[in-house]
Design brief:
By secondary structure, the protein is α+β, with helices and mostly antiparallel strands. The chain has 19 helices and 26 strands. The strands form seven sheets. A four-stranded antiparallel β-sheet has the order 3-26-25-24, with no helix packed on it. Strands 4-5-6-7 form a four-stranded antiparallel β-sheet, with no helix packed on it.
Length: about 700
């Protein structure tokens, strides 16, 4: 290689190593970007009225506005909870008014102690909303019509009771320091109802994002039928959602009663309309399944500042409603436009190719990689009864296991493996497998992480996350595409995550980037900790412990290479390449009985893709301008199995050149004189005899000895 060529390659690597487009795409994918438009609208509204109104940010004005915000915030939270579940509640204003009246009647008329007034008011709010919950949750009535009717009924009850007790309530409330603190007190200058609102907001955020009931509620809002099929109790979930909404209205009504000691006919009037406006402005979807406490707060802030500001500017009556409605229409229009083009922008920017110069692959015209038909006449196990057995493995008893596309682990037994059974249903997409010293089957499940399966078929989790990278915009702590694994003599599990940017259904797109999006991870069962030990790996795939247990081998599929990482000895923690010019795409690696290693090549390299990897601009234009089904992808429809030693010398290969039996090959296992073949898109597991191999050798005993 000339000095000029070397300099050019170094320049291109440096130029394409960092991509602003990738940064923008990952930023656009952040969940909080959904609320970007509502947040910007809020900032614009607050900034505008701060500039237009003198003294708007004075402490006294902020405190007074804060007290109004606290009570209004509870109504917005109440409606947000219902809307996320796919419903609506037009009765929140009437429930708010009734709870205000209940609190005042209990405190003024019946002279009950505050320790009784508070729970009675909360129970009243929950009971009123329970009517909606029963009708909508159990009787399956329409939420809009149901809450419209209950709003009319509750408002009528409020008017009747208000007239009955109005004279007495106007006489004043008994002196009570706690009651006064609820209405006008503060802590460190923060109004009491704002303190309560913050506490409720924290609890609400945890409920929606970290609890099973919150997940169920979001799932129901996103798709009620799918939620029912998933076993979620829709009726009870909706019932308790409306009850919780009523309790939130009651909290707001309680603070309102303590602050104003009023139950006038306009209490809570049209509050539901204003709350709906706040919910929509905050970006909570009226269709359900999308929303958060933070978005509710954004919307509530925008609406309160807007309504308060226009009044202080002298805009009163119907004109203030016109301003509010116009702002809502503008914000919704911008938000819809933003959501539409945001996803288009992500699609255009997300795939970010880089420069990758690969050495020429070893020749397949002669030498150990010369094609043959040694796999063409293999015995077909489970023909048309398996769908994509990506990996296969044999236990101590000689039973054959395979992970298939349905998320199952199948087990074949009998003299010719004629008996098929579903051993376990762990979910995800089962990929690499290995037995530990206790004969538990450890499995990489794409989309889930690292799991174990006991001998009785029961599933247990080992890890679904690792340490987060400090320099990544997106949180990469969750395992997205755990691929293959092996287990060291001390029980530590080493496994590959092929890519942190793509899912199992789009894994091949990672090849077009040519970036080190993968990593090697270690799980230590002694302390239950998971950590990333090798970063920026180019689609790491197969993992195999060396025969002496002091290192492990791993394949980089798009780099066509095999590397060794030392875990013990003087080289511990270092990595070295032992093969860098394979003629195909390496996949799983496993031990052979003669001290060497079997390697699956899932497909063969093509000159066109090798050339394209040197031109990132070409691949970028291809992704942006051509339909995905016409992209230049790796050739994965013809593969082979080869054998190599610790020094990286390949000694032989086994082919099914026409792809008759094995159009793809992702794994192979030697066991008791035979080689078993698996493939990501195959409809069988192949089995061929190995001449000259040890007929008593099996993989499990090579790791853990006889039991």
């Amino acid at each position: 290689m000339s000095a000029t060529t070397s300099f050019r390659q170094a320049y291109l690597r440096a130029r394409y190593r960092f991509s602003l487009a990738q940064v923008v795409a990952e930023l656009l994918q952040k969940r909080w970007m959904d609320a970007l438009v509502p947040f910007v609208v809020m900032v614009v509204v607050v900034t505008t009225f701060t500039q237009l109104i003198s003294g708007y940010t004075d402490v006294d004005n902020l405190i007074n506005t804060g007290r109004e915000f606290g009570e209004f915030g509870f109504l917005v939270f109440a409606l947000t909870l219902v809307v996320i579940g796919g419903g609506i509640d037009l009765s929140i204003g009437a429930i708010f008014a009734l709870c205000d009246l209940v609190a005042l009647v209990c405190f003024v008329h019946f002279k009950l102690p505050l320790v009784a007034v508070i729970p009675i008011t909360l129970i009243a709010g929950g009971a009123l909303a329970a009517v909606n919950g029963i009708l909508i949750g159990f009787l399956r009535t329409r939420a809009f019509l149901t809450t419209l009717v209950t709003m009319i009924i509750f408002r009528a009850v409020f008017d009747i009771l208000g007239q009955k007790y109005s004279q007495e309530l106007m006489s004043g409330t008994p002196e009570n320091s706690t009651w006064e603190w609820l209405g006008s007190g503060s802590l460190l200058g923060i109004p009491s109802n704002i303190i309560a609102l913050v506490i409720v907001a924290i609890v609400g955020h945890i409920f929606l994002s970290r609890s099973r009931p919150g997940w169920h509620l979001t799932a129901i809002g996103a798709g009620r039928r799918a939620a029912r099929h998933a076993g979620i109790g829709i009726e009870w979930t909706l019932f308790w959602t409306y009850v919780g909404s009523g309790v939130l209205c009651a909290i707001g009504g309680l603070f309102y009663a303590a602050r104003l000691a009023s139950a006038g006919s306009d209490t809570g009037l049209n509050s539901e309309i204003v709350a709906i406006t706040a919910v929509v402005l905050g970006g909570v979807s009226l269709g359900g399944g999308k929303g958060s406490v933070g978005r509710a707060l954004i919307g509530a802030t925008t609406v309160l500042v807007l309504t308060n500001g226009v009044v202080r500017l002298g805009v009163v009556g119907g004109m203030s409603s016109v301003v509010l409605g116009a702002t809502l229409l503008l914000a919704v229009a911008i938000d819809v436009h933003w959501a539409k083009h945001r996803h288009k922008a992500i699609a255009k920017l997300y795939v970010v190719p880089t420069y990758l110069a690969l050495p020429p692959g070893q020749s397949t015209d002669e030498g150990p990689f010369k094609p043959n038909q040694r796999l063409a006449k293999s015995q077909a196990i489970g023909l048309d009864m398996v769908d994509g057995p990506e990996d296969c493995i044999i236990d101590r008893q000689g039973r054959l296991y395979a992970g298939v596309r349905q998320g199952w682990i199948l087990r074949f037994s009998g003299p010719n493996f004629e008996n098929r059974e579903v051993f376990s249903k762990p979910g995800g997409r089962p990929l690499g497998m290995a037995f530990d010293k206790d004969d538990n089957l450890i499995v990489c499940l794409a989309g889930m992480g690292l799991y174990g399966i006991r001998e009785d078929g029961s599933v247990f989790k080992l890890s679904d996350e690792t340490n987060r990278s400090w320099n990544k915009i997106n949180d990469d702590s969750r395992l997205r595409l755990a691929d293959d694994l092996d287990i060291g003599p001390d029980g530590r599990v080493y496994f590959s995550e092929a890519t942190i940017r793509y899912e199992i259904h789009s894994w091949a797109t990672d090849a077009l980037e040519g970036r080190g999006n993968g990593r090697i991870i270690e799980y230590d069962p002694r302390n239950g900790k998971t950590r990333t030990i090798i970063k920026n790996v180019l689609f790491p795939n197969g993992i195999c412990m060396s025969h002496d247990g002091k290192s492990f081998l791993f394949a980089e599929t798009w780099k066509h290479s095999i590397s060794r990482h030392w875990v013990e000895g003087p080289k511990a923690g270092t990595t070295e390449v032992i093969i860098d010019n394979l003629p195909g795409f390496p996949d799983n690696i496993n031990r052979s009985s003669d001290g060497k290693y079997w390697l699956a090549l899932v497909g063969m390299r093509t000159p066109s893709l090798d050339l394209a990897m040197r031109f990132p601009d070409f691949r970028t234009r291809m992704v942006k301008e051509i339909a995905p089904d016409e992209w230049l992808f790796p050739n994965i429809n013809n593969g082979c199995v080869c054998k190599f030693d610790d020094a990286g010398n390949v000694s032989e290969s086994l082919w099914d050149s026409g792809g008759t039996s094995h159009p793809t090959i992702t794994s192979m296992r030697e066991d008791r004189g035979h080689l078993y073949i698996g493939g990501l898109y195959n409809n069988r597991i192949g089995r061929i005899p190995l001449e000259g191999s040890d007929p008593s050798w099996n993989g499990v005993e090579s790791y853990w000895g006889k039991k």
